[in-house]
Write a structure and sequence with these properties.
The chain has about 250 residues and is an alpha/beta fold. Helix content is about 25%, strand content about 25%. The chain has helices at about 50-60, 75-85, 100-110, 135-140, 210-220, 240-250, and strands at about 20-25, 45, 50, 65-70, 90-95, 120-125, 125-130, 150-155, 160, 170, 175-180, 190-195, 225-230, 230-235. The model is unreliable at about 1-15 (pLDDT under 50).
């Protein structure tokens, strides 16, 4: 398998096979996006005429990923009706109407529907524009099953549009991640785009929990890695952020 011989530079001669399954996290309540989410779920909020959910699914389609799982809870019927109109990728719904399972529990619940290992997970409230290479292909090229359980796409803090935190991770020269130290600033922000190995969820029950739990497992074993996004990234978490993102997209 490919290893990090060249620390942060893409090696274009690699022709990685793209995993054919992805999950788009779309079940959240979208409280910070109110009043836009008073009558619709956050993934169906439009930015520059396209829903956040369609932007994520369009990236999957462009990368040649055949199958996507979308979880539903809040205004579940709206999301189901929306994805039913798509043919590429093929979308399967993971139903969380009975209980919102958070990010980790949502993925654990959907594992039987994800027929690839590793598989992509994408947050529907983050929007990205590819750099010089398709972002999902970049993750596939950097994946090394011998050394990794999770590979997170990160963006430099200075280029994290709409983000108001102190960063999430430090990264060493070979891409290994460690978490931000409390009261300090970290140089990289997690984008919500990632490749995960199914073994990370061994022993995890289908119950509400954050993906941070499995990231911590990977951290302890030295198997949490990152790759830097070379394009644009926007956190679209509030109504104000929708307008700000539209202005930045229009400006290129």
């Amino acid at each position: 398998m490919t290893r990090f011989a060249a620390p942060l530079a893409l090696r274009p001669e690699l022709d990685a096979t793209v995993p054919q399954a992805a999950m788009v996290l779309a079940a959240g309540l979208g409280k910070r996006m109110r009043p836009l989410t008073a009558t619709r779920p956050k993934p169906l909020v439009e930015v520059a005429g396209t829903t956040l959910l369609d932007r994520a699914l369009d990236h999957l389609a462009a990368a040649g990923i055949a199958n996507a799982v979308v979880n539903v809870h809040y205004f579940a019927e709206q999301v189901e009706a929306h994805v039913a109109t798509r043919t590429v990728p093929s979308v399967t719904v993971s139903d969380e109407r009975a209980q919102l399972l958070e990010t980790g529990g949502g993925v654990a619940n959907a594992l039987p529907l994800l027929d690839a290992d590793p598989f992509y997970v994408v947050n529907s409230d983050n929007l990205w524009v590819d750099g010089s290479i398709d972002t999902l292909h970049l993750l596939a090229q950097r994946w090394d099953a011998a050394t990794m359980d999770a590979l997170l796409l990160v963006v430099p803090l200075a280029r994290a549009s709409g983000y108001d935190g102190r960063g999430d991770f430090y990264m060493n020269p070979v891409g290994a991640l460690r978490r931000r130290v409390e009261h300090r600033v970290a140089p990289y922000v997690f984008t919500g785009v990632q490749l995960l190995a199914k073994r990370l969820f061994d022993g995890e029950a289908v119950a509400p929990f954050s993906l941070n739990r499995v990231y911590n497992k990977a951290l302890v074993s030295g198997r949490l890695f990152g790759v830097v996004h070379g394009g644009l990234w926007f956190h679209v978490g509030t109504p104000a952020a929708v307008g700000e993102t539209e202005i930045l997209l229009a400006a290129g």
